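pipeline stage [seq->struct] | target=Receptor-like serine/threonine-protein kinase SD1-8 | organism=Panicum miliaceum | residues=153
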Amino acid sequence: MAPKYAMDGTVSFMQDVYSFGVLLLEIVSGLKNQRRFNLIAHAWEVWEGGRSHDLVDPAIRGGCTAGELGQAATCVQVALLCVQECPSQRPPMADVIPMLLQQKAPARPQRPVVCTPTRSRPAAAAAAAAAALAAQAEITGGNELTVTSLEGR
């Protein structure tokens, strides 16, 4: 949920951009953004450390080419642009698509507000993230593939 909507209920097109960014991170990583696991903060740490390819779902990472991992890194960067706290800092969807297609270079995102450091030690934070990932894998039964067939009424 976009911070502006959570704080005052304001709805805008930029709220949809925020949601798109979260969805893009979930697709790349195969993880869900939940209360007990902040996917945005995790993605920021991985991206800031220059390890965006580590965020790619392990079920497919091994079969990816260098080009595909580069595309995934672009997706992470664009997603982080989409989840900026201030709606004016988020790119319009008309700019997001060319960035994803690598026709336009994405800007450098700022640290999202949900990544504000807490008082916990870095080792404790890393352990908490690892525990959340393990719990996510346990809940979802690992990295299983599901296929949904949609049919009109």
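stage status: PASS
auto-comment: The helical segments are 3-8, 13-29, 39-48, 58-61, 66-82, 93-100, 122-140. The chain has one domain: 3-140.
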